[in-house]
Amino acid sequence: MKELPSKYYLTHFHEFLAFVSGPCAHLLSIEDSAFIGKFHTLCEDAQCLYVRGLNRKSPIIRRNSLFYDEINDHQLHLERLITEGFYTEVKKEHLAELTHNLTKPELAQVLRNANVSFKSSQSKADYLQLVNEFCQFEDFCAFLDPTVVLHRGQDQHINYFLFLFFGDLNSNLSKFSMRDLGIMPTQRGVSTDNARFDFIDEAKSAFFYAHQRREVMSLLPEQQIALAQQFPSFPTPQGTLANEHCDRFLLRLGKAILPHDQSLGIKLLAASSEPLAQEKVIREKYKLGEKEWVKNRLEMIIEEPDSEVLLSFAEDFLARKFQQKRTSTLTDMLREQSTTVLIDEMYMDSVEHGVKLFYQKQKKQAFRTENRLWRALFGLVFWHELFEMDSNALVTEFDYKPQAINQNNFYNLYEQDIETRLYRMTSAQITFKQVSKVMLEKYGRPNGIFRWHKSLLEVLAVFFDHVDIEGLKEHLRMMAKDFKNYADGYPDIMVVDNTGLRFEEIKAPGDQLRKNQLLTIKLLRKSGFKVAVTQVEWFLDPLQPYAVVDIETTGGRANQHRITEIGIAKVVNGKVIDTWQTLINPQRHIPQKITQLTGIDDEMVSDAPLFVEIAENLRSYLSDCVFVAHNVNFDYGFIRAEFERLEQSFRMPKLCTVREMRKAVPGLPSYSLANLTRHFGIDMTRHHRALSDAQAAAELLFIINEVRHEKANGSRLRG
User: In this structure, are residues 601 and 589 in contact, taking their beta carbons and an 8 Å threshold?
Assistant: First the structure.
């Protein structure tokens, strides 16, 4: 792995500060600027020592841990940092941070200082609860000595600077290291001459409410109520981002308080513009019996809706509560426009894949699309407007989503350009050419709208062969107007048959249609697209092919060792209909202990094909099958790792004969392949050779499926 220079972290910090004190200079208070100036007066080693401390998760730092080989005279520089306020002694306001930093024995010492009884068998969580309930600041005396423990100072400035740089409270300086190590791709070449905010009041306000929103869930109920009571004295949010954080803060705090103070909780929720907050207010008011108020509010929303989300809720709630409608829109959609398909229960863990194969076996075109297709369409169609037209779209190379998407005002800012773009989409063929051109030019470029995929162009080609261009334009316009609510919830698959193109939302037994899915489905239908809800019922398909696989390897770890042999027994309707076997040249020495186990040595595989040479035939042979093996994750993991080395994905439904045999025949002393074959009298020509083991596992599969069929038939009869 690539190595970083010894003081890489200081280089990164200077890069970070250059942005903060440069393009963001107008967003800094006098105190912020003074902190930066004070930092620059420190010598290099003192700067290193401070930045090292910044990379710690906790602001509570044990003094003896601040020793690093590349820093000289630690004590001298540490005293300077303490004098300048970069580190401080632990104070009463730091108590919560100190408590969570202590080990279990240290917490025990605090409890003893407070004369609180406890048991050594109690968990650390129990200790923490006792400390929080019964201990005072003085009880921590052993951990308050500044020669032992320090508190990192100036975090209020650093946290604000990180917010200015990254635009959120979750990012930290480690992203610079991940960039330089090649772990994190970034938007190289992005100009860093822009700031996220125009005015300091906007920046400080957004930071304040983002911080308040994050802190809510870490507070105890009484602390949340105290915070809610302080809200009227909070500063008025300034700017789009501050208002969004404020609305979400009120939603989070209001929901948390409702069980403890319903009136205060409703008051907070009512002050939020978030649709979910408004919905919650209506539901709570209805519970309180304020039905006239609720009815009037619902009618107002329907007459002048602020969002499609709130409108959809209002129409549904009004119909069910005031117009004697018995079922919800979600239920109606499932009942009115749904189909049912029978899928082999092997696809329980990958139901969408099972339905896709179901249609493909009927010679229909079917693709997994979900959010990928629509996000890709949006990103490719509006790539220029999103990433290239405005130099402020991305602020730093670490940005992925443009600011207009983060603030959900993309259409408002670029309405004329968006409408011009849509006007020029005169046909599906012309649009596909434009999209393909963007895809070829920009392929692989990191962005926060969609993920690149090798099969994307194929899916787009089929889509544009059948799409109504006017419906597509209308839907893209709605996405541009409200990307926040129309970025997800899209149907699972796209199907093309003799009736044309349609989308299907797949629901297995017990699955529910979520609200965001309902909203997106309604919008797609409004734009002219066919959308169905497909409900799956499980059954055991006797004609489902199984590929019973066994491999031999050079060792036990897929990421380190390689395959030396593959054997496959293909099973349909309780019979082995075909077998496939090959040795593989692992391109490395086979250890003696492996040879003793399998009989496969270096000479045997010297002229065998490489995995790359059989990969295509193997994938074809496994196509449409359930991947079966004894301890399936071992064999599956090795084959997937081999494909990953070729930069190819590998995904199949799996069945483990160990796990299924435990269900089918419980209580056996051992479920190893050798012991099971001995127990059931199954012949093995050569244990630890791939095809022999695969054929033995196939015999176990017959037993498993016989039990499964009996159980399925019994359930059907009882039903």
Answer: no
CA within 13 Å, CB half, 115: 0
Full-model pTM: 0.77
Within 8 A by CB and 6+ apart from 719, the residues are none
The answer, yes or no, to whether residue 335 has pLDDT greater than 80, is: no
Residue whose entry in the numeric block shows the structure tokens 């279990």: 104
The H or E element spanning position 42 is none
Q: Is 589 exposed, middle or buried (0-12, 13-18, 19+ CB in 10 A)?
A: exposed
Mean pLDDT, rounded, for 338-362: 86
Q: Which residue has the tokens 């983060």?
A: 406
Q: Which residue has the tokens 């800094």?
A: 28
Alpha-carbon separation of residue 145 from 89, 102, 681 (angstroms): 7, 14, 73
- Angle of helix 308-322 relative to helix 515-526, nearest 10 degrees, comes to 100
Q: Which pLDDT score is estimated for 101?
A: 87
Contact by Cβ (8 Å): 493, 521:
no
CA dist 467 and 487 (Å) reads: 20
* 238-241-246 Cα angle (round to 5): 75
Q: From the CB of residue 127, how many other CB atoms can be counted at a distance below 10 Å?
A: 24
Q: Which DSSP symbol is given to 686?
A: S
The torsion region of residue 363 among left (phi > 0), alpha (psi -120 to 50) and beta comes to left
497 three-class SS = strand
Q: Which two tokens stand for residue 114?
A: 């407070």
Q: Which two tokens stand for residue 84?
A: 């300048």
**Token pair recorded at residue 97:** 């941070």
Query: What span, in angstroms and rounded, lies between the C-alpha atoms of 539 and 548?
Result: 20
CA–CA distance, 511 with 711 (Å, rounded to integer)? 23
Structure-token pair, residue 698: 């196939």
What are the tokens at 634? 């071992």
- Give the lowest-confidence range in 68-72, 129-133, 705-709: 705-709
Cα–Cα distance list, 518 to 288, 339, 505, 522 (Å)? 28, 16, 10, 6
Run of H or E residues at 529: none
Whole-angstrom distance, CA of residue 398 vs CA of residue 152:
26
Closest CA to 312 of 527, 526, 531, 530: 526
Helix axes 657-664, 632-645, angle to 10 degrees: 160
Torsion of CA 490, 495, 501, 506, to 10 degrees: -40
Rg (CA), the chain: 31
In order, the DSSP letters of 168-226 are: SSS--THHHHHHHTTSS---TT------S-SSHHHHHHHHHHHHHHHHGGGS-HHHHHH
Query: Half-sphere exposure (CA, 13 Å, Cβ side) for 420?
Result: 6
Concatenating the DSSP letter of every residue in 544-568 gives: --EEEEEEEESSS-TTT--EEEEEE
Residues 39-63, mean pLDDT to the nearest whole number: 93
Instruction: Residue 248: name the closest of 222, 210, 280, 220 by CA.
Output: 210
pLDDT band for position 336 (50/70/90)?
A: low
Burial 487-503 (b: 16+ CB within 10 A, else e): bebbbbbbbbeeeebbb
Bridge partners (DSSP) listed for residue 656? 629
**262-270 and 221-230 helices cross at what angle (nearest 10)?**
50
DSSP 8-class letter at 488: S
Residue 98 exposed, middle or buried by CB count within 10 Å (0-12, 13-18, 19+): buried
